[in-house]
Amino acid sequence: MKKLLLVLTTFFILTGCSSNSENLTLKGEIQNNIVSSVSEVSGKIVQMNKQQGEPVKKGDIIAVIDSINQEYIVDQLQAVVDMKKAKLEELENGARPEQIEQASAKVESLKAQLDILTAESESGSSSVSIAQDALESAQINYDYIKSQYDIVMESYNEDIISKSDLDLAAYKLDTAKTQLDTAKSQLQSAKIKSDQGIKAANANYDAANAELKLLQSGAAKESIDMAQADLNQSIAQLRQGQNTLSKYNIAALADGIIISKNFELGDIVTAGGDIADVAVLNDIYVLCYIPDKYLDRIYYNQELDVKTSQGTQKGRVSYISLTHEYTPKDKQSTSDSKHTATKIKIAIDDANGILKSGITAEVIVPLIE
Predict the structure, then answer these.
(1) Domain count along the chain
(2) Is 306 domain-assigned?
(3) Which of the ends of the chain has fewer CB neighbours closer than 10 A, N or C?
(4) Does pLDDT of 199 surpass 50?
């Protein structure tokens, strides 16, 4: 969970509590916890439904990534499932002569389709070959422009040409690099589509051929069980494909407000890209710093009071940093002679939503002996 870090005014006051204990008063600022909506897939953003500052509910679609290729895969998997369901039904009901004739014609048709796809792939007339040619051309162009850039850079270092000439050469090199990267991406996409088409055609042919043989020989219980298992496997693959397809819709993971949007419509996002950050409503904490000399006198989940302009509420220690920091000079106090402190966070249960990010808070920490 990503946290919004703000510059905090922090100071420390020691007050007597009893003969064997004391309280430490820390000041900090209320902050919201932040949840990031991260993409698990790559592609171009084709819809941007929410903007910075807009409220969202959990499950609201913030952005949509182009899913045409994945939709094609799901359609193919659905077709395989439908075909295997029909095969299982025929095995269970028994075959008629006309069914065998139809199954034979189906095998011949699917074999012809597979042969056409395979021939196109082997002859180089497919989209893969076209993309490969484009990549080779882009590579040659990039290599040439890179050599020209090196010459310009050498001339610039020798004060022969101006900085503007160097900037122009750098711009041309960046453009050529972008074209080269695009050509590589297009080749990879073409290979995936070609492989998927051949694999799907081959799977359809194998399934139809197996169906024909079963019809011709008559279905035994073992054959029916095998067909059922084959269908179950295809259904699992379809569900996996559908699950992947759903990831092209980037949804809000919690109710809140979009505080940052890191991509725009038409941008290319890679897997792991942070599409937007949502400040979670009523999920807040106080960020403050405790002098290191008191660090051994607090503990996780320790209950304490948090005072704000809205009154006093209960809180608990939810985070203690593993690193130490120098307290800025304008935030040092007489109780912090070494000027070093550790960041801590105090979680607050604010179910009524009365506290807002930015409100100053005092944290009363009972120090243990």
Answers:
(1) 1
(2) yes
(3) C
(4) yes
